[in-house]
Amino acid sequence: xxxxxxxxxxxxxxxxxxxxxxxxxxxxxxxxxxxxxxxxxxxxxxxxxxxxxxxxxxxxxxxxxxxxxxxxxxxxxxxxxxxxxxxxxxx
Length: 91
What we know:
Layout: H1 3-42, H2 47-89
Helix pairs in contact: 1-2
């Protein structure tokens, strides 16, 4: 296996990880920012006030983006399995 193939697989793995994490992280970021803004306006500093809405929003994001996420990881896995003969032959 050549160093270029290893770098290509590593790069694709990092990209797929970023793509799959993005909907969850962006949802948690937006909801967390909104709740923090609300807390600073109302001066209510309660930890659970920011935690519970984030959990609910992330669960909703998983319901919405879950099928896409599964399709992406299956496509990536199939691509990796398809590459096995090429990687073993050294070409």
